[in-house]
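Notes continue from the previous slide.

Worked example: a multi-chain complex. Inputs as given:
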Amino acid sequence: MQEFTKFPTKTGRRSLSRSISQSSTDSYSSAASYTDSSDDEVSPREKQQTNSKGSSNFCVKNIKQAEFGRREIEIAEQDMSALISLRKRAQGEKPLAGAKIVGCTHITAQTAVLIETLCALGAQCRWSACNIYSTQNEVAAALAEAGVAVFAWKGESEDDFWWCIDRCVNVDGWQANMILDDGGDLTHWVYKKYPNIFKKIRGIVEESVTGVHRLYQLSKAGKLCVPAMNVNDSVTKQKFDNLYCCRESILDGLKRTTDVMFGGKQVVVCGYGEVGKGCCAALKALGAIVYVTEIDPICALQACMDGFRVVKLSEVIRQVDVVITCTGRDGGRPGEHLDRMKNSCIVCNMGHSNTEIDVTSLRTPELTWERVRSQVDHVIWPDGKRVVLLAEGRLLNLSCSTVPTFVLSITATTQVPSQALLLLCDESPSLSCSPDEYVASLHLPSFDAHLTELTDDQAKYLGLNKNGPFKPNYYRSVPLLGAQSLFFRWELHP
Amino acid sequence: MQEFTKFPTKTGRRSLSRSISQSSTDSYSSAASYTDSSDDEVSPREKQQTNSKGSSNFCVKNIKQAEFGRREIEIAEQDMSALISLRKRAQGEKPLAGAKIVGCTHITAQTAVLIETLCALGAQCRWSACNIYSTQNEVAAALAEAGVAVFAWKGESEDDFWWCIDRCVNVDGWQANMILDDGGDLTHWVYKKYPNIFKKIRGIVEESVTGVHRLYQLSKAGKLCVPAMNVNDSVTKQKFDNLYCCRESILDGLKRTTDVMFGGKQVVVCGYGEVGKGCCAALKALGAIVYVTEIDPICALQACMDGFRVVKLSEVIRQVDVVITCTGRDGGRPGEHLDRMKNSCIVCNMGHSNTEIDVTSLRTPELTWERVRSQVDHVIWPDGKRVVLLAEGRLLNLSCSTVPTFVLSITATTQVPSQALLLLCDESPSLSCSPDEYVASLHLPSFDAHLTELTDDQAKYLGLNKNGPFKPNYYRSVPLLGAQSLFFRWELHP
Amino acid sequence: MQEFTKFPTKTGRRSLSRSISQSSTDSYSSAASYTDSSDDEVSPREKQQTNSKGSSNFCVKNIKQAEFGRREIEIAEQDMSALISLRKRAQGEKPLAGAKIVGCTHITAQTAVLIETLCALGAQCRWSACNIYSTQNEVAAALAEAGVAVFAWKGESEDDFWWCIDRCVNVDGWQANMILDDGGDLTHWVYKKYPNIFKKIRGIVEESVTGVHRLYQLSKAGKLCVPAMNVNDSVTKQKFDNLYCCRESILDGLKRTTDVMFGGKQVVVCGYGEVGKGCCAALKALGAIVYVTEIDPICALQACMDGFRVVKLSEVIRQVDVVITCTGRDGGRPGEHLDRMKNSCIVCNMGHSNTEIDVTSLRTPELTWERVRSQVDHVIWPDGKRVVLLAEGRLLNLSCSTVPTFVLSITATTQVPSQALLLLCDESPSLSCSPDEYVASLHLPSFDAHLTELTDDQAKYLGLNKNGPFKPNYYRSVPLLGAQSLFFRWELHP
Amino acid sequence: MQEFTKFPTKTGRRSLSRSISQSSTDSYSSAASYTDSSDDEVSPREKQQTNSKGSSNFCVKNIKQAEFGRREIEIAEQDMSALISLRKRAQGEKPLAGAKIVGCTHITAQTAVLIETLCALGAQCRWSACNIYSTQNEVAAALAEAGVAVFAWKGESEDDFWWCIDRCVNVDGWQANMILDDGGDLTHWVYKKYPNIFKKIRGIVEESVTGVHRLYQLSKAGKLCVPAMNVNDSVTKQKFDNLYCCRESILDGLKRTTDVMFGGKQVVVCGYGEVGKGCCAALKALGAIVYVTEIDPICALQACMDGFRVVKLSEVIRQVDVVITCTGRDGGRPGEHLDRMKNSCIVCNMGHSNTEIDVTSLRTPELTWERVRSQVDHVIWPDGKRVVLLAEGRLLNLSCSTVPTFVLSITATTQVPSQALLLLCDESPSLSCSPDEYVASLHLPSFDAHLTELTDDQAKYLGLNKNGPFKPNYYRSVPLLGAQSLFFRWELHP
């Protein structure tokens, strides 16, 4: 489990990769609280449960919560119309017929929509949770009620965690041929424990930075014999999930925790990658005065042209009201900076794991911690100065705000054609695929947006197919790894 | 009590004038829940309570909650540094010595800061609540513990309401000489029940539209023998409270209830007064496409120049994702419009009372209501179409978001010099006052903003005093009513 | 003539009040150059000219330029559709029949559209120029050709200036009964030289700060026996002309002179009135980092909330790339500040007359001036440092950019109903007029904007007439002066 | 010459690639007019000229204009401080010693700064013009006076054009070993006429779309035996030149030609690549209502999220006030669309060559053309409707505005390390180069921007060198072509 937080990333673990101690955040969700705290303490593994059709091919907290979970899924579906339309378009032809997918992701209403779409397209699915705290028990119950073999609950022990994964893979008379992973634990488990199954996997779709990192290492070591799709670096994830998701959630996270007014506030944003760009845009738009720190001269020059002063942290630390880290770096904020912050300065992290803010340096005998609200601590200096630390340095938007379903939809939708592509790869490994453009086009109706179509003459003049792809190849997807495998990497698009 | 909602207003009842059924909103507050729902059901009027100093000169829900309330007050103080600095500056000279103020306002952490400032400046205060649901019991307890004669709790009956007011006014050996009112109920009570006290009141400060309306009526009828300060129309309230407060809170209210993504959403804002301007600015800044409806050609032309399409509601109602009313009008949204909204359209009100959205027209046998989350109802048409109604048409930002303490601070701070001015009015009725500029200057240090000072030559050239006032008289304050009284109205400033 | 620059103003002389040495600016106009520099040097007063209908009731530079001038007028008409529609609506009823108007304004294509509208509505007009340099000779020729008695050319001597005014007023068999003035010179001339005519004037419409100031003085002295309409303080001028006109023209003026890139530039804007607000909004929008200086705490607080740091000039003078003055103050920029500017710093004035920037302090033996382009001087310090001074400190947007015709149209259109109102005032002095709302509504069709109409019920509920006025009286127009006269002042609207 | 316009491009030929009939644009330049129109008509090829040092190794219009040209160069230097600092830093070590560069670019003040930097770093240079109209004669004179072998003047014949190129290449006793090209004509000439020289060229730097396209074709055909650096696709050009340059110049181009007011204008921007993004951002920021058309679903989705309605042109063509093409497509605007535009609609092109707007379809007997101002034509329909066509459909910003020197500086600066890199490539072909980060860092001091430096620990944690490169390899530079050559392509960076 420790491997989860081992690898750095510029843009952080966006998606759903919530940090482990995120459990206390549910009170910030707009949804009604998902879990019944008065639940009995019997482990789900001990319980005998069957759904209304008599099946007991699952393990969840409480199958009776299915109806409530279904309502949450339905609310999510309203903002994931792309997946629904994909479901409708492809339902007849069952393009995923024959796919036997084992999945390991956060189990939320949004991923439920994804899983049910995979099923609707013909796949058989077995699912576990990639995080021991993040499962919405009601949603898991709704999935189980609908017939998905789901093994997950909130508050699993580490032993439970691997037990659930194993229950997905190790099945008599059913052998997975596809993996959909978030973090790499499932992939690792199959690779280590069931090498024979692993060899016959037709494709892996991985969406987290950590998981992709692990796949690269495997590939470097010459041991990745399976085609793997890196959804993390897809255009749809990078350019939409990171930028827009943070633009939407930074204000929300700050408001829900501190009720801070943005107008006129001085804010320093550490890092001007996609995450930083999103934060800066939103804060500036609401009247904050934003400073940027950067190590990369290109991002720094962009910040300048976008109207932000690029400074060293030490230049502004005494005057800012809010510090937001988006660096993807470890230990970016040593004690000296915290020492010099002014009273009531708010400190939070949008970038990566706890390590961006040097929280441990604040756990000293000199400093007093006072929990003033859920997710809000005052760290009090001997002279009475207070620094307001949010979510103990964990990701603010995942801990203290909700993330727009629509944006999650873009990434989730990407996984469906990815699965389909990998199924086909066996037969046509040279396939020039552009799932990103397809996925983007599925989301346009939500905006009532109308694409212009090239005339034949124009298409010819431009040397393009009328239906795309419209980007040069190097923007979209590149087979990266040789051997007998294909590794798609979707590069960034401007 | 019904008079509360009787009078229209362009800009709505901003400030703290929360609607009556606001009680269910506490779950949206970032503060921990203020009230212990398992509290015993004994009426505070029946209880015997004393604070730690042995005084029982108050009536609150539970004096034991004082410590928790004190913490909330302290948090509020951090964003109300102007009041605190006023407290510090004027504390020595006690400018309000001799003031015996009866107050009737929402009792929240922010008003507690105001009350304690009045006390620190030498005033004696007795306080009741202007709304039977809005009292934060813990804050009332903290005030009582600190020695303020406060009579208020959450969930008063109407009888309780007037009993509390009466307890403030009707005291042996103590006679109020100042009124600080929000809504006019206290003023009305004193005027009707204690005419002898009323005659000796040296000044009334009123901050709500409704209360001001009632004062105007009294004045028109020749019965307002007391100088009254209209804080509602002060520059500091109109130009800051309305515009910036709505800019800050519209996004927050929508996010906390619906998690809606703003990017690309089509929104129609009905009304382009200060409230509408604030909403439009925030929504556009976060990537929404905003349409405006207006009846007033000047506001309409401003909307045009600011980059919004000005339309009739019928032109866009089929395509918008969100409808926000800020008209100050009754019945602005008849059933026909709701009929034509698209599925999942969100409808909310930032403007005035429930009547802006024609909620009653939705209470029909044909339409099904489904409460999906706190403050969020789905109204379901026979064909399955759902309209998402927030806060049952009550003010969104007061019901579903928090309002920035800092902005409230501006209005609250205005009340202190208003009290002082009225105290002085007796002696110098021709006083050319500019509390608005003074109040604004008190808030500048929060931004580390530094005013430029005129040189003697420049001041002379401009015909100004170096310390202001800087605006022509008609921008600031005008004595409106004759008789033996003075009525200050602070006009708008651009 | 010296009186022109005597009076201060917060917002400066926007409209067309170009400074005297503006003559060199023609090269910046997008229109082809208006004047034929090779023109003969004979004074127009010496020439015998007749238009094509045989009339010689005018005095212009060269009647043969009429056709070119007509084209410029036609181009202007396209952006002044409100005046044209007013022309069409009211043409039948000739509401200005009987009006004999003497006018004294800048003579440009835009004012030509106004003059011809007045004529179309039934007025008889005689016109001179309010500035010796600003006349577009071709436009004057076109007016003369069309039958307007116009007496104006570019490059008048001071003697010519008063001769032209006199030719308008002093006519056998024709006696003016209305004055339309810009600056007050015409009014002054009639008042002093023709007191008998002055007494019978039915109304004065004045649009400049200076002229209004002079009228106030006259009124204070009890000598203003004529109703006067202060268009300068009308909502339509203040809220549109100042704010939006500056937002549109600040970027234009800087680009045309210096080609400066805005992205990332540090700019200090001195003054945050309407002019400053417009400049700040535009610069921030294009990626500049903007600082504000202010003397007025209310404007300063607005700047803070709008996301600008409020500083003293000395705090930022060493680091800024551009300094823009909008203070309405004299000598705002003493030598010490210029001394500390960095190399290549651009200095310009959007606010008032030359005196905002202390240009004379730069005319010293130590400093070298180098004219690098038209309207652009490098002032060179002994150590080689260069400060880039635009338009020698005169108004940047009038000197170096064009001003949007549409915005001018709003103010110009205001003058037509003003004339009509004053005609009527004699008969109905208590008339509650709202020309500003009417004028605004005339401009909405340009934006295809559709006003919402109140239902009868709503109007009744709001206590409003369905057709307005929608603003409280104190927003719109107030009769200010007693005697037998009326003085309309239109107050500001938020 | 015809090849110039043959190749399509998404983003158009930004940089300096002015279209051929751009000659009439000089009047829009803020600089004084570069050419003396009364110049004698003798061809420079016939003239005998020597500079003040007695050299006649050049061919320009008039060597006497050198001083004026020098001043223009000096003005440009002020905004190209990165090149100047590069000059200073590397001057001692003369990194380009041994480089014998033939160049063929637009000859402007900005390129003069580049050429003189190359010389200062040790290179020998011979230069011709890549466009027969774009040469600033004074600048060419200044270069010649400074000793650069420059062969160029404004108004060359096609024969002159190739003669000048040949004079650069075909020199006794001097053999070029580097090519700096803009458009590919010089490369083509050397390749065809001097194959022996071509073989020994150590590197080509090409910055235009067209030129890069020709190199790719050469490479595909296996005939590119020389390493070539594609500056056109460098991060610094794509992300800065295209986006920010258009953001800065679209407003300028529209203002200088039409004085149009932006507030409330409805504008459709065809294409949402970098150019379209820049145009949309600027227009929205100034209050225009912007619609977008797109063929590419990813760009379309970005437009949605950024707050623009994505439409087909036919949906909005009747209502828009301005049409801007940025498609890189041919014939994007057939007659039908122009037919349906409203009166006074402005049409212009920011994207590519004339062909984006179907100008020829407007050259019909039915339609009357009227040249109303320089670069502004009214195309008049039989019913009187006028469409305002700017620059006859050529690139608006290059024809009618100036382009910020600072942005040009970024691309120009990129060429210096490119030259150096190519010099080194011979020796170390596997060099992992990152000139883009270096170039960006050189521009930061202009903004007083301060980079943060990684600590050793952080660098180690991130697996980065403290001095960069900070981007993964695929963001920066990729060797594209095998054989014995290297072809650097700098890919896009987010």
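Summary box: The mean pLDDT of chain C is 80. The first strand of chain C starts at residue 100 and ends at 105.
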